[in-house]
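Wed. Picked up where I left off yesterday with Nitrate ABC transporter substrate-binding protein. The coffee machine is broken again, so keeping this brief.
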Amino acid sequence: MLASVALAGCGSIGSENATDGAVQAAAVDGAIEKPNLKLGFIKLTDMAPLAIAKEKGFFAEEGLNVTLEPQANWKVLLDGVIGGQLDGAHMLAGQPIAATIGYGTKADLIAPLSLDLNGNAITVSNKVWAEIKPTLPVEGGKIKHPISASVLKPVVAKWQSQGKPFKMGMVFPVSTHNYELRYWLAAGGLNPGFYTDGDVGGTVGADVQLSVTPPPQMPATMEAGTIDGYCVGEPWNQAAVQKKIGVPIITDDEIWHNNPEKVLGLRKEFADQNPATTAALIRAIIKAQHWLDAEGGKNRPEAVKILAQPNYVGADEAVIAASMTGKFTFEPGDTRDAPGFNIFFDKFAGYPYYSDAIWYLTQMRRWGQISADHDDQWYFDRAKAIYRPDLYLAAAKKLVADGAIPAGAVPETDGFRGEQSGFIDGISFDGKQPNAYLAKFPIGLKKGQTVTAAGVK
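Structure written out below (tokens, as returned):
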């Protein structure tokens, strides 16, 4: 009842040997070791694969009895997985990466499956929107998108002259939202600040002050004036529209086209000790992802009803549907087609690419969470330890053999995406050249630079 887990090319992964061959599936044999599982989640629409796997019987089909438990915030969720109170969780992609490299909390976590692509947006308060809207170009009677963060520079400068900082919220220091917000601000010429050792604020040299707010509390925190905008997943941008307290200014797909988002996070020890259970868990979630994207999203209305239940997201159906069914509303009267706003299965959304992990690591270094330089091999080795396409392939290939998903939905790859464009600043990303990528940014740490409270040196 043990697994023999083998990854192609057991040596290090790098630009010289990363293309030697496709990642091989782990070999998993035996009966499920732990049929009763508890998984954590945060009340966001991108937890949908877990809810669908539960409600549509995919967990049960795989012999699993799964309890889904909402968590108060990302820190509580992370601690629950590390401490064993949760067997796994809907997790920020940066959380297993940060834990494994020892940023914040040290623990060996893995990500054997990516839950989705896209799904976030940046919202500003009505007060901020009123200042910038008159300056924005119009196309076809509507504001032209994407909107650069450069439009905020006059507002930030004016407020600073009045002694008032410009403040924005994100959900966690190692969240996708933090890095997307920082990326957007920096692309527009605004410095979002740097982290020093032991500093979770990351405000050294900042033009815009960023702070942590749990996702469901974002609208109320902005309405109270504590923050002037935020980056969060749905339905909490659409909630601001519904409450008429703010306007989503850009979606994350406009910042980085088809960016990887949440992951299934597990303790490495759990996966090692429960290989058949892990494979069954991944299979059930892949089936849910497939259901969510089937036939152009025909099941999304049903998914909206499920997510609206109080034990899952607990928001109004209309608010969830505003982004989950292929539309996105920026402000009243400006609803646009957004068929790719939430992608769960298509475009190989579930495959945990090494290059995705490397992108997060580069942003941690860019902003000082990784305090010193590392060579490219360091990035490759960390990605290989955390993102586990071998485990994903073990599950996915069985589903292909069983006829549950099409063979073309499983990529044959060395674990790296090709060079990626589609970033708002026009900078391309090659996961096999992390240091060369970091050198491209006008704002961000360069080779040899460190951060102290006094600034970058």
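Quick read: The longest strand covers residues 36-41.
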